[in-house]
Amino acid sequence: MNKRQTTLKDLAEKLNVSVATVSRALKDHPRISQKTKEAVWQLAADLDYEPNQLALSFRNRQMNAIGVVVPKIIYHLYATAISGIEDYANAQGYNIIICQSNESMEREKAIINELITSQVAGFIISLSSETNNFDHFTRLQKKGIPLVFFNRECEDVDADRVIIDNFQASYDAVDHLISTGCRRIAYMGGPAEVQISNHRLKGYQKALADNGITVDERLVQHCEFDKESVLSHARRLVYGPQPPEAILAFSDQIAINTMIACKERGLKIPEDVSIVGFNNEPVTELIEPPLTTIDQPGFLMGKTAAELLVRQIENSDTVIKPEKRILSSTLIIRKSTNRNRL
Amino acid sequence: MNKRQTTLKDLAEKLNVSVATVSRALKDHPRISQKTKEAVWQLAADLDYEPNQLALSFRNRQMNAIGVVVPKIIYHLYATAISGIEDYANAQGYNIIICQSNESMEREKAIINELITSQVAGFIISLSSETNNFDHFTRLQKKGIPLVFFNRECEDVDADRVIIDNFQASYDAVDHLISTGCRRIAYMGGPAEVQISNHRLKGYQKALADNGITVDERLVQHCEFDKESVLSHARRLVYGPQPPEAILAFSDQIAINTMIACKERGLKIPEDVSIVGFNNEPVTELIEPPLTTIDQPGFLMGKTAAELLVRQIENSDTVIKPEKRILSSTLIIRKSTNRNRL
DNA sequence: GCACACTGCGCAACTGTTTGCACAAAAATT
DNA sequence: AATTTTTGTGCAAACAGTTGCGCAGTGTGC
């Protein structure tokens, strides 16, 4: 047990050559004789030599690893995005170190600090809902560490970003609701600090305006992600004098908890109220009624982010203009909005 | 941009002392004068010095990182277990590198190899469903690299493991079904190679036997995890001449797809057939009817695994006898098994 | 006045790998 | 035969940090 890994030195000593020669032989350097090379290859195979990645990273002053910081991996979007990142990163020879900020800015800062000192090659980040200060990102940029945002991005930092068009997605969803005859449409948004929630709010407002519907501010709620917060905000909507005919939610989880509040109030879905979620989590097609929702290309999002990051890492000498990739999302229409058109 | 991180050497040169002195001053070594220490601390703060973890890891011949290998992070159990691992590991100063085997043994082997060369401090692993050869684990043990299994373990390898009592959990579930008056009880198992599925099968069989019910082999199915496979096996059960009165499934996903097959056949749940799942995924309380299921302590499982691993890492000189931690699971009774007792 | 202890700091080795340079021997060219 | 080129190999430095040891210089005790 506890046998040390075979090193170049081990091979060199057994063969009575220098470490440098062994290193070059393994790389098939032209200046090493065929005879020496073959001896080295043979022994390396016998002793199961594998280069020590840690030593290599140290020498290159950089780990072959990418730091991935997401709010929570149990959110389906992040779990799938991580698969996309892993897929591409591994193919390019990078490991990924996944960290959860748990929606805490302090945690996010600590993670980034920790990973900087570990010399990760770059970062792929989706902001915590709390994050309202961006010093830790500008710090990355000052140090020249590659950075890509995805999904929850940071507009004040000039970095690569991969997102969907949240404005348009929510516009389309509201448009769909209007087309089924709804006019009193509510928006159950996420925390007010979450930018993408506000982008969706804008899309919602624009769609209403474009259809000649005045926005009723009482129909716009901002809730936290926990069940209790959603329920209490949803109750404000459905127990009011004029419950909405439709509700667009910021996420499927919020939509589902909103459905619970509706059922509690005795409202039938979709007859009394239509509901639209966001993310197309697998659960949405299993519940009753199946939920109309917006499918985000999580895997592709992760993969694209990884591509952008690896491009930055491998061209660290040249300055690349930050790019904004907007992926398309799809409205998946299911029973929860299945009203007869008027 | 691209400013190098401050190193001990930078501090040493500015202060005209040796690197060794700076290193010791930062560690408050008694042999360094107060004056020197203060000068070092001041400059270190000014230049934002942070020790380079990569260099430290290199020197210690080991990364301060733990390799975590799971089948898929989208499975709720693994996502929660990862949170538990991260929670404990971070508190102890370790990062975690999460990799998905995607249920492939080849991928699992490749990941382990890759992480070995990166000199991770240890591994926390849940087997892929395909894994039937354990050389890559015995190899870890020969190299003296700490290893902990959780959930899907490997009985042939003598390592720490954290599991629930799958036999008992499934026994209890079947017992519950019998207590509600069911006698024709089916088992929708996972792939035949997955050990825990077979443990649950044994619990199922024992519970039937203890209640004087003969096991009907036609009521035992082994399916893959994809929806189509589950549906086709479930149909064999429900379209037969004598559909079962109850079905115990290996996972919530399998249970839910089995429910779909039941509904398709016109069977009402729980009136015609009771269903029990496994894992208590959040979706189980949202579907109609809410699913009776077995709650596994995912977070605790991960945390315990991390504890055992860190213990191994930090006592690598002494040999610790591998330990088997069995955590308790809980049967959560919901509507899907709510029949009147006979 | 001499031995001894203590104080404050630097030297050097070590971790595994790569790579520019040097240098000898062999081969090729004058 | 003398020079140049080519070939095959080794030396040493570099990456950032830690740590045993040594070595001055100062202080203490008898």
Automatic annotation (TrEMBL), chains A, B:
Tell me where the signal peptide lies: none
The protein's UniProt keywords, in alphabetical order, are: DNA-binding, Transcription, Transcription regulation
Q: In Gene Ontology terms, what is one molecular function of this protein?
A: DNA binding
Q: Extract the InterPro entries matched here.
A: HTH_LacI (IPR000843), LacI/GalR-like_sensor (IPR046335), Lambda_DNA-bd_dom_sf (IPR010982), Peripla_BP_I (IPR028082)
Keyword Transcription tagged: yes
What Gene3D superfamilies is this protein classified in? 3.40.50.2300, lambda repressor-like DNA-binding domains
Q: Plastid: is it a keyword of this entry?
A: no
Task: Please state every residue range assigned to the domain named HTH lacI-type.
Answer: 6-60
> What PROSITE patterns does UniProt report for this protein, alphabetically?
HTH_LACI_2
Q: What Pfam families does this protein map onto? A: LacI, Peripla_BP_3
**What name appears for this protein in its UniProt entry?**
LacI family DNA-binding transcriptional regulator
- The species this protein belongs to is Agaribacillus aureus
Which lineage ranks, top first, belong to the organism behind this chain? Bacteria, Pseudomonadati, Bacteroidota, Cytophagia, Cytophagales
